[in-house]
Amino acid sequence: MKGLRSNNATNGNSTSEVEAESAKYYDRNIQTYSVNNQNPADFIDEFLTLIPKGKGRILDLGCGPGINSGYIDSKHFDVEGVDLSHKMIAQAIMTYPNIKFHLADMTQINFPSQSFDGIFASYSIIHLPKEKIPTFFAELHRILRLGGLLYVSVQCGESTEGFYSHPSIPDEPLFLNIFSKEEVTECLSKNGFKIISQHEKLPSGKVFPFMKLFIMAKKSFE
């Protein structure tokens, strides 16, 4: 594909190095990212209608510069954001000083069990290697309250992982985990989630050339 490169591997890096390199990528390219991502995520309103307004506590995983956190806050929810990019978190704190943001690896968060009514993960798990996904979903299940809602958006297609170049940043490959629909839905089911809504969108404009998959799933049991 034009503007796209993949080696279908992690270049021999450990998973922690892959995630750290993704954070550095966003540190270097925060300006381009911010220009290209100024609106809240697709289907965020549908997600919020399923959380008790005024009572719901929501975790924004991979919050970036805080666009989604700010929108969630504007709808009167208690929201916190987590990201591994220093510059993304700095911008989020500057733009939304009333929201609590954490500079942290989202795979190593240590919130108490049943801390949140909702978890919002917009294009964040795509930067985690496949071997980490089952354990990660299990951890999200742990920190969600019973009946709590998980929002996940991913790049969807033939299951693979590797380094790809974004059309807006063609000279800097970024690690992506591309999910098949069956792969992500099966993993959610195995880790205690019941899918209640799915949407797909074709890629449009200067974006990665993969189908976009949006899933909302409830924690169905302890």
What does this protein structure show overall?
The protein has 222 residues and is α/β, with parallel strands linked by helices. It has a single domain, classed as Rossmann fold, CATH 3.40.50.150. It has seven helices and nine strands. The protein has helices at 15-28, 30-36, 44-49, 67-74, 86-95, 133-143, 181-190; strands at residues 57-61, 78-83, 100-103, 116-122, 144-156, 160-166, 169-178, 193-201, 211-219. It has a seven-stranded mixed sheet, sandwiched between helices. The radius of gyration is 16 Å and the shape is globular.
Short description:
This protein has 7 helices and 9 strands; from the N terminus they run αααβαβαββαβββαββ. The chain has 222 residues and is an alpha/beta fold. The protein has one domain (15-219): Rossmann fold, CATH 3.40.50.150.
